[in-house]
Amino acid sequence: KETKLWGGRFEEGVTDAVERFTESISYDWQLYKYDIMGSKAHASMLASQGLITAGDRDIILEGLDQIERLIQEGKFEWRKDREDVHMNIEAALIERVGEPAKKLHTARSRNDQIVTDLRLWCRDAIDKILIRIKQLQVSLVMLASKYVDLIVPGYTHLQRAQPVLLPHLLLSYVEQLERDAGRLVNCRERNLKFTAPMKNSIDAVSDRDFVLEFLAANSIAAVHLSRIGEEWVLWASEEFGFLTPSDKVSTGSSIMPQKKNPDPMELVRGKSARVVGDLMTVLTLCKGLPQAYNRDLQEDKEPLFDSVKAILGMLEVCTEFAQNISFNSKRIQSSLPAGYLDATTLADYLVKKGVPFRTSHEIVGRSVALCVSKNCQLAELQLDDLKAVHPVFEADVYEYLGVENAVNKFISYGSTGSNQVKKQLEDWRIQLGIS
Ligand code: ARG
């Protein structure tokens, strides 16, 4: 066995169990690009401070480039007995270029290296996620554009509430995703700029709040995606029948030949558990640590990598799902008369006639009760029936009944009114660069 780079004071090597337990190369090799980037910057700093010669610096830089190429070509041997990505690269560099490489670790610790590598990795990961969020937003806006006039039931408590335009619902996801992106941009700007040194070296090496912020932002995004997943799974059911995923995004059953399941969206819902769990892992990991570096921090990598892998996959699959579903306009329209979606509009009608809202709520409640007993819709009640409930009803009441009339009554900012929704759809198309 080779002597460890830190082995000077040791008489015996570690046991196999300790070696297996403490190694991190099996996953932190993924940081090699950033580790090499950091080492190159470090070598340049050492030269500019007069701690190594320009000649040694150039040998180091050249050696690091060669190692990077070897890794990219899959020709680099990662050794568990060399513990981690830092030692693997440093030991290989010493093997390659000899003495000058032994000067590279002047004035730095692996603890400095790992936190630098991780920040650089997070910065690229955030950029990848931001691209995927935008792709999903684009596909949602395109989907919304196909159904500009389609009215769907709005729900609260999963009970029918008021009618809304489908694009209004789809744009609500787009808004949420925009805030998800904003949180990631915010995290990137606060923690990952690399425009100046950190002011406090203890802080620099000991905190992982940038990982936590990133994982928290991912978790919120994952919860949003999970809710889309749940809604689409529900809408794809026989009971709702509001949307049909194409074969390309559905899977079958091993026993029931008739089945066509929306598994991808179920897994979007499922993977959100992972992303939230990853945040919990690192929060718990950090909570008992004294300053500064503690080896516990090695345990932040796997949840971080896992969270990013999961969220990238979730975004990709949601995008493909949005590109491969169709809404069943006929089925949706034929379902609209149920559930008294126009009841609140009727209460607004009475308010216009001067009735206080609490009173009009009560009057419409009694009108709905009448419909329930007659098994009819509000629009099917005769004017005399309505007048019997309250004399304030007049013939113009029928301009407020029915889902189309109800939707048309919405005019205020942010509402489901057709002009509002069309304007916002257009704004999103411009913002996202959709021609
Ligand atoms: N592998 C460690 C980590 O991921 C970095 C190396 C620090 N090791 C050490 N013995 N100080 O945090």
Q: What report would you give on this structure?
A:
The protein has 435 residues and is mainly α. The chain is built from 17 helices and 4 strands. Helix 6 (110-146) packs parallel to helix 11 (301-323), helix 9 (209-235) packs parallel to helix 11 (301-323) and helix 10 runs antiparallel to helix 11. The longest helix has 37 residues, at 110-146. The radius of gyration is 31 Å and the shape is elongated. The N and C termini lie far apart (63 Å). Arginine binds at residues 24, 28, 84, 110-111, 114, 295, 297-298, 301. This is Argininosuccinate lyase.
Report a brief summary of the structure.
The chain is mainly α and 435 residues long. 61% of the residues lie in helices and 4% in strands. Strands 1-2 form a two-stranded antiparallel sheet. A two-stranded antiparallel sheet has the order 3-4.
